[in-house]
Design goal:
Blueprint lengths: L16 E2 L7 H6 L22 E4 L3 E4 L8 E5 L4 E4 L8 E6 L2 E6 L3 E6 L2 E2 L21 E7 L2 E2 L5 E2 L11 H6 L8 H8 L2 E2 L2 H4 L4 E5 L6 E6 L6 H7 L3 E5 H8 L9 E8 L6 E2 L2
Parallel strand pairs: 10-16, 13-15
Antiparallel strand pairs: 1-8, 2-5, 2-8, 3-4, 5-6, 6-7, 8-9, 10-17, 11-12, 14-15, 14-17, 15-18
Length: about 280
């Protein structure tokens, strides 16, 4: 979809502390955690991590242009932020990471391990997302669900999406297939109503059965769009599937965002499968 991609979605894990032994003084290092949280015992670890490993900040932490406190600050990452390793080896115990589209360095003193690229250490499943959006389906079909797009509720009321222009990336294919013949983007989404993104993983117009394992509810959707952005998936360390708000309303009783970690399972079904509730 040409629209902005939606974030919207912590794992309970045994913490794995990474100590910082930078060339800066201990006082400078402590200030690099903006919250000035209590000092963490130095265990003299200098671990290397595979590219794509997800780490979590344990305090408000500066993201810097280089691997020391002498480099300028790009942004302050709130405690609990998830960052992705882009170089395997730390420099001065600073890790080269990406966070919400920014590329920089942060002190390992205030990080903990969340997951390796081979698979999450807690919830979720092995996944990959390289470039703009994912192109490989998540192992086992386990995703977090998020809401997006224009839709119509059970009372027939039409809804827009302030964070989305409602123009599907697969609009041309949908028109050709007769799903949205002659329709504008928003009209197409509202007429289909039961749709998803992740065309990079499944292809335009693929039909998917999406199930909420917590309550047993399922719905069949058609893929109308691309996304979500890789940085959104990295922020939670798992694959995400964007679903129309009609779908998340049915599966969860309301809209969901990435930080909600709303788990669903996804399986492909035949193209002839009717769209809508499929419990």
């Amino acid at each position: 979809m040409t629209s902005p991609l939606r974030p919207a979605p912590l794992l309970v894990l045994a913490p794995f502390w990474l100590a910082a032994c930078s060339s800066a003084s201990p006082e400078d290092d402590a200030r690099d955690a903006v919250s000035e949280a209590p000092a963490i015992a130095d265990t003299s670890l200098s671990s290397s991590f595979a590219i794509g490993t997800t780490l979590r900040t344990t305090a408000d932490l500066n993201l810097r242009r280089g691997p020391s406190t002498s480099h300028s600050v790009l942004s302050v990452m709130p405690a609990g932020s998830l960052v992705t390793v882009v170089e395997p080896n730390p420099v001065n115990q600073f890790y080269h990471v990406t966070w919400e589209g920014l590329d920089g360095w942060c002190s390992g003193r205030y990080l903990e391990l969340v997951s390796s690229p081979g698979g999450n250490t807690g919830e979720g499943a092995p996944w990959s997302c390289v470039g703009s959006y994912g192109t490989t389906p998540v192992a086992g079909g386990r995703y977090y669900a998020t809401s997006f797009g224009c839709w119509v509720d059970a009372d027939g009321d039409a809804h827009a999406d302030s964070g989305d222009n409602c123009i599907p990336g697969c609009l041309t294919q949908a028109r050709s297939a007769g799903l949205c013949a002659g329709s504008s983007g928003p009209a197409c989404e509202r007429s289909v109503n039961w749709y998803a993104a992740d065309a990079g993983r499944y292809g335009c117009l693929a039909r998917l059965r999406v199930s909420n394992p917590a309550n047993g509810r399922s719905a069949v959707v058609v893929v109308l769009d691309y996304g979500p952005a890789c940085w959104v998936e990295r922020s939670v360390g798992a694959g995400i599937i964007d679903l129309s708000s009609a779908v998340t309303e049915y599966l969860f009783g309301g809209a969901r965002g990435a930080s909600d970690r709303a788990e669903v399972t996804v399986t492909e079904v035949p193209a002839s499968t009717p769209l809508g509730p499929a419990d």
